[in-house]
Amino acid sequence: MSEPLPAAPVAAGPTTGPTTGPTAAAPATAPAVARRGVWRTLRRRPLFWVSAAVLAVLGLVALVPSAFAGWFGHPDPRACDLASSALPPGGGHVLGTDVQGCDVWANVVFGTRASLTVGLLCTAVALAVALVVGTLAGYYGGWLDRVVARLTDVFLGFPFLLGAVVVLTSVGSRSAVSVALVLALFSWPTMARLVRGSVRTVRDAPYVEAARAMGLPDRRIIARYVLPNALGPVLAVATIMVGSVIVAESTLTFLGLGLNAPSISWGLQLSSAQSFFQTSPHMLVAPAVVLTITVLAMITLGDVLRDVLDPRGRS
After folding, report:
1. What is the DSSP string of 237-260?
2. pTM here?
3. Closest by alpha carbon to 196, among 163, 226, 166?
4. Directed axis angle between helix 266-273 and helix 227-254, to 10°?
5. Which helix (H) or strand (E) element contains residue 229?
6. DSSP 83-126
7. pLDDT tens digits for 95-131?
8. What is the DSSP letter of 171?
């Protein structure tokens, strides 16, 4: 009987060392697949498309309000006629006029820009600060984490609206930018804590460990592997925050602490119409309805993103 042939030698696989090709590509593969799965899930959510469509229309109105203001009334929100004061909806003014004889529809359209500017700018500034502070604290930990934790505790000790009221009362001329920056001052700590928590859950993931084993610098690991996979819950909360900031701006303006005339915003319209609600409710209902639709669209989009981007909620 002939002797059995020797077994063929097994070649060393591509996973024997951290510097081989497939292993080097592994850190980027899982996140890319996850992002494609998120988009496929979002496309099957009707609420995502509805809220996104509403916000897209509002964004277009904010960019070119003059193109929409003349559809159902006078295209100039400051073209007022005291002889037409507080007219009910109808005729040449589909939403009626306010107490100064200005077209309500034109004011609602032009007020979209100021309200969205405050919401988006405040959220963008707060998110930028939170990303820097929260990422450094969550990735490195140690004394830096403790300092950031105590700093956020100081800011969180002030109630959001109360802190904004205290600061805005010392500001002379209040514009959309100044109001947004004041609101961002008291908004970033909550987002920074969220970023810190998300980064801490990602920094020890296998693909991050593989990137460290490859000898990549920390800044590249954070930018390429940590932040893209930690931003999901943060972006969902940021979307919801835009709606909350718009409500806060309208509340402060309603109390006389937000935007000042001649600015045009939904909060200013609500503030000027409160005394005439019983006799001319259309002056208050129109901006209130648009404000409600905008906030609901923002919150709905944020809820959908949170459900989809939360890894514990995906199969």
Report:
1. HHHHHHHHHHHHHHHHHHTTSS--
2. 0.79
3. 226
4. 30
5. helix 227-254
6. GGTTPPSBTTBTT-B-TTS-BHHHHHHHHHHHHHHHHHHHHHHH
7. 888 888 888 888 999 999 998 999 999 999 999 999 9
8. -
